[in-house]
Amino acid sequence: MMVVAGEALIDLKALNQRGQLLYSPHPGGSPYNVALGLGRLGVPVAFLGRFSTDAFGQLLKAHLKRSRVDLRYTVEGPELTTLALVTPGAQGESFAFYCQNTADTLLRVEDLPEELPQGAWLHLGSISLLLRPTADTLEALLEREMGRRPISLDPNVRPFLIPDKSAYEERLRGWLGRVDLVKVSQADLAWLYPGQGPLEVARAWLRLGPALVVVTLGAEGALALLDGKEVRVEAPRVEVVDTVGAGDAFMAGLLAGLYRAGVASRPALLELDLEQLSRLLAFAAKVAALTCTRAGADPPWQEEVR
Questions:
Q1: Cα separations (Å) of 301 from 248, 305, 306?
Q2: Domain residue spans in the chain?
Q3: In this structure, which topology does domain 2-305 adopt according to CATH?
Q4: Which of 43, 122, 245, 266 has the most CB atoms at less than 10 Å from its CB?
Q5: Mind listing the pLDDT tens digit for each residue in 42-63?
């Protein structure tokens, strides 16, 4: 089983129709999208987080249920749902977050389940590790569960929500020392470490603690480092409609592949050979590519990937 913890929000995407901006709501949030992708790929998955009782919060919950995601570890509150305004412009899309005292940022330690299923993976990441008190709560969960189960992390860096880059880098290094798998995008690394190549950073991260470091390279595919082994795969060529959610779909594909391979511990992760690792990356890249063929964070179902 997989347990995915973090934010759940509504992306309000703008469409320019006859000079007017019309905003359309889309369920989102990086961990939310990963849980969605896992459920659609037929992997037993539960979401851990806090939803609003407002209409958007209920929309978020219903969308997960339709994608076969277990909600046993969720709680609700009267606060509003976090909103992300996505507006097109001359320089590309711009983002504005409305996330002060919203429901998913107010997860507290007392909201955490006393225990998670034995052998289940735990996945964390994105802005849920930035906004308090949820950030502190999930860090406590990370501290509690490290060594008891495999843990994966996707920082999914959002520079506009990081007021102090140095402090963020220091905290990120702390997370890296507690997880078994980290997936990061080339764009994230370019912002964090300008001038350094992704392979150079991946090697440095591997020394901090993770067993497996994966870097997505957009249209160029992905690379992975595992206990001295290095693998690179190409991305399938598709007609791209929208890249939103592609990284989360890749993460879901990677975790789904590990689940199906029976990898439920750090030692099992370290035992993967080059061929197995290549197959895992290729599958994850396929899931991400299919997501890019349609608008929004809309990961494929298991039947589509077949």
A1: 14, 7, 9
A2: 2-305
A3: UDP-N-acetylmuramoyl-L-alanine:D-glutamate ligase (3.40.1190)
A4: 245
A5: 999 999 999 999 999 999 999 9
